Amino acid sequence: MSSSSTIPECLPLHPGASTYFHGLHTSDTTKYVDLCDKQFNETLDQIINSAAPNTEELIKSLTKTYAALNTERLTAKRLAGKLNTVKQEYKMKSDQCEQISLSNWDLYRTGEMTAPNLLKLYDDAKDSRINNTQTAEDGGVTTAYLLKIFPYIWENPTCVLPDLTKSGNAKKTRAADDDEIHIEGGNIELICPITCKPYERPLISKKCGHVFDHEGIVNYLRGHGSRDCPQGGCGKVVSMRDFVPDKIMSLRCKIDKIQKIKANKEDNENLDTL
């Protein structure tokens, strides 16, 4: 720094400015991203309900757009993490500096005494490492997850889902994020084992992964705080707080219903033609 400078380039953080310093943060875009996420789910429902001939193409387009949203989500997290790290480093270095006074003003002005430069620290800092895995707050399934498995369920609502991990060689649409997903499969039934009727509001146990309709499990647990899982051979003890909505089963049932209606309509049209 030139000795002719009238003011120092950088000064330690003044105690009176601490409130403003701690208030320095990135814009919180969470509510906007959550709103977009909700709209994606609504759009997914609309696409399914329309049962249009180009449904798979629409889903691919939706998946690509959702991938862009997740990129922005991750960028915002990295930016916030980087700023927090830089602020901590700046505060630590600033606390080691001698507070500005009339006696040391010229020393700071000439560069004989220095203070950290917040902007330079930020420019030199590396981006924070953020886990790219999106998780649902309720412990359920994310929109990205549903978009990945959609092509398989659309083709066959009762299918056993394949290995969708990065090492898997099954076909898939462009991933909405880079997290690895592996779904264990079995014989998929769209009938509740308690009510013996098609699922209306499927719930999945976070303890054992067994699925029951809301009506069935509520009746089964009525009068009991907890009880053995009604699935034969399970052995887990469950309560209502262990259950969350099963979005995958809901997707299966919705697609199955729509495809049956579509098939019946086509059969009727063929009969009319005959």
Automatic annotation (TrEMBL):
Checking Gene3D superfamilies in the record gives:
1.20.120.1010, Zinc/RING finger domain, C3HC4 (zinc finger) (3.30.40.10)
A GO MF label: SUMO ligase activity
The pathway to which it is assigned is: Protein modification; protein sumoylation
Q: Report the InterPro entries cross-referenced here.
A: MMS21_N, Nse2(Mms21), Znf_MIZ, Znf_RING/FYVE/PHD
Per the record, the domain of life is: Eukaryota
SUPFAM superfamilies noted in UniProt: RING/U-box (SSF57850)
Residue ranges occupied by any SP-RING-type domain in the UniProt entry? 177-264
Extract one GO cellular component term from the record: nuclear envelope
GO biological process assignments? DNA double-strand break attachment to nuclear envelope; double-strand break repair via homologous recombination; protein sumoylation
Write out the entry's keywords from A to Z.
Answer: Metal-binding, Nucleus, Transferase, Ubl conjugation pathway, Zinc, Zinc-finger
What subcellular compartments does it reside in? Answer: Nucleus
**Database matches in PANTHER family:** E3 SUMO-PROTEIN LIGASE NSE2
Q: Which family does it belong to?
A: Belongs to the NSE2 family.
| Name this polypeptide is given | SP-RING-type domain-containing protein
Which species does this protein come from? Naumovozyma dairenensis (strain ATCC 10597 / BCRC 20456 / CBS 421 / NBRC 0211 / NRRL Y-12639)
Annotated gene: NDAI0G00530
